[in-house]
Design a protein that fits this description.
The structure holds 2 protein chains of 2 kinds. Chain A is an all-alpha fold. Chain A contains 13 helices and 3 strands, in the order ααβαααααααααββαα. The longest helix of chain A has 30 residues. Chain A is globular, with a radius of gyration of 21 Å. By secondary structure, chain B is mainly alpha-helical. Chain B contains 14 helices and 7 strands. The radius of gyration of chain B is 24 Å and the shape is globular. The chains are: A mainly alpha, B mainly alpha.
Chain lengths: 265, 315
């Protein structure tokens, strides 16, 4: 039905059979516990849980027999953008990086911090397409995480539940990912990716995506017995108010400028 | 990489790690991945492959949206998401070509046990039933409520096993959901992963050696032969498998538990009632211990006084 793990138990079973040591399993266990905390209640537009997606990514990396820190980083690959650290912020910060480093060690954290910087027009991607031998170990492993992430989105046609533009971009980028996989010598992976792209391009969705659901990106469903923290709500209100004020101010300046350009200058 | 085998013992293999070659050269199937769905996408694809109509798939999609709401952030003690277990149970039912209402009930079977309705009250209630009936319909809700009422203790399991002939059509479907639930728990060795020591693992295996065959026999006697055929090797594997004891998840929870997103907090009313019931349980525990200690001490004192007052001690 599906070649890769989607639950922590399937992943642990897979790692055990693949011969990863007890120490390495403990590292993956620690990462999974962190993923549970930070991605809880988070879902992809398809309704698939984010935890299942990161487990799938780690499983793909494990099937490539990559070292445990890379598999672990696969479990936490989008932690700075998608993880809920409880401060209402997104992205990387020194405090967050310090916390991650303390829990998982510097190597895993480095991969996790590198991941959001790997956009498809970046220098690393260009280098990987032109001369992958010049990539250093960190860039190479981070790139492998990105490729695994794409394959995971493709293999069960999850990306088709995104809006058309995002899904189209995913497929285009996956074609670049296939090319890079071949250049890196991952021929089996490239074949699988090509097959997944072919399948995704002609696939029909088995169910219609619910209209109320976000199709841009992941969304959070809070447990019914929980409420958003007041500090987070207040912060969000302040940010919204500041944005609103800025927009109004700019509008006012534009109006004045249109009437009397010399005065404003 | 060359594909060595696509199927083994009639089952479709999912990945290379599904087969391990033993020292005697014979391959055997491992529990790394299994053929049942664990995510909604897998379930929807399976439903299409099994021939469920568009309308039926849309129905399951609606019920899945309810399951997401009730089970967001709820995990099993093994760390597996509860939602994945529900999907797995529904997938087993779908593989048996169960009617869509049964598959939907499988997707919500534990709603009254562990579903988060946002209410302070645990378990089934009229308000919860009305709420669920409003979103999934009477028939599915009835199955879920009956599932909740089916007491699954060892004594009751034996009773159900002895009185299978008395079950009506609805009860048989509820039993089917229960059996699918049990299979789902054991498919990936989930029960073994709960164990924190070798002793606990052994206890689980000893329990399964008696419990497993009884479930298989139940499935056979009620006429779910393909389910029985699926259960037998899985339960056999659970009894004989050796998994190194690693604290896979360091939670101390014995039952399913909630991990709330960090930006959210428990509602004050829910927190208040939870703390109150926890305090009550703690006080009851202390009272029981004090009673027990008092009983022991008073018994010793009585025995001592009796000895003092007896003629032999005076002598």
């Amino acid at each position: 039905m599906y070649p890769y793990a989607q639950t922590n138990i399937q992943l642990f079973n897979q790692l055990r059979h693949a011969g990863y040591s007890q120490m390495e399993l403990r590292l993956v266990r620690d990462a999974y516990e962190l993923a549970m905390e930070l991605f809880t209640g988070r879902f992809l537009p398809s309704g698939k849980s984010f935890v299942a997606h990161v487990v799938g990514t780690a499983s793909i990396l494990a099937s490539l027999r990559l070292p445990a820190p890379v598999v672990t980083a696969g479990l936490l690959h989008n932690i700075y953008d998608a993880g809920d650290f409880g401060d209402g912020r997104h992205g990387t910060s020194t405090a967050r990086r310090r916390k991650m480093r303390r829990v998982l060690g510097p190597e895993v954290e480095t991969y996790a911090a590198r991941f959001p910087k790997l956009y498809w027009q970046s220098q690393t991607i260009q280098l990987a397409r032109e001369d992958p031998d010049k990539l250093d170990a960190i860039d190479r492993n981070s790139l492998l995480i990105l490729l695994a992430d794409h394959l995971e989105h493709l293999v069960d046609c999850d990306l088709l539940y995104y809006d058309k533009t995002t899904a189209g971009n995913y497929i285009d980028n996956s074609k670049i990912a296939t090319e890079i996989a071949e250049r890196l010598g991952l021929f089996q992976f490239a074949t699988e990716m090509r097959e997944a792209i072919r399948k995704a391009e002609c696939a029909e969705l088995p169910v219609t995506p619910p209209e109320h659901r976000s199709r841009k990106g992941a969304f959070v469903i809070a447990p019914e017995s929980c409420r958003k923290r007041i500090s987070i709500v207040l912060r969000q209100h302040l940010i919204d108010a500041a944005r609103d004020y800025r927009r109004k101010l700019l509008k006012a300046i534009r109006v004045v400028y249109e009437k009397e350009p010399d005065t404003v200058t | 990489m060359t594909m060595l085998a696509g199927r083994f013992q009639g089952k479709r293999l999912n990945s290379p790690s599904d087969v391990v070659v033993k020292s005697d050269g014979k391959p055997y199937r491992t529990a790394a991945m299994h053929t049942y769905a664990q995510t909604s996408l897998q379930l929807f694809s399976q439903l299409r492959a099994e021939g469920y109509s568009d309308k039926e798939r849309e129905r399951i999609s609606e019920v899945y949206a309810v399951a997401i709401r009730l089970f967001a952030g709820i995990y099993l003690p093994s760390g597996k998401m509860f939602l994945d277990h529900l999907v797995g149970t529904a997938s087993i039912l779908a593989s048996l070509h169960a009617p869509v209402e049964i598959v939907a009930a499988g997707l919500l079977h534990a709603a009254y046990f562990f579903g988060d309705f946002g209410s302070i009250q645990k378990g089934i209630s009229k308000a919860k039933r009305a709420e669920l009936r409003g979103v999934v319909g009477d028939e599915v809700e009835e199955y879920v409520a009956k599932y909740d009422r089916l007491l699954w203790t060892w004594e009751n399991v034996q009773k159900v096993h002895a009185n299978l002939a008395d079950l009506d059509a609805v009860d048989r479907q509820v039993l089917l959901i229960r059996l699918a639930n049990e299979l789902e728990h054991q498919l990936d060795l989930g029960g073994i992963y709960y164990a924190e020591s070798e002793k606990e693992q052994k206890e689980h295996q000893i329990n399964m050696s008696a419990y497993g065959p009884m479930l298989v026999s139940m499935a056979e006697r009620v006429g779910f032969f393909s389910l029985a055929a699926e259960m037998a090797p899985v339960f056999k594997n659970v009894v004989s498998v050796q998994v190194p004891v690693v604290p896979w998840i360091r939670s101390k929870h014995q039952v399913a538990y909630l991990v709330a997103p960090k930006s959210y907090r428990e509602r004050y009313s829910v927190m208040f009632w939870r703390k109150l019931s926890e305090s009550y349980q703690f006080c009851s525990k202390i009272r029981n211990r004090v009673n027990l200690a008092y009983g022991k001490v008073s018994k010793r004192i009585r025995r001592f006084l009796r000895r003092l007052s007896s003629p032999t001690s005076k002598a």
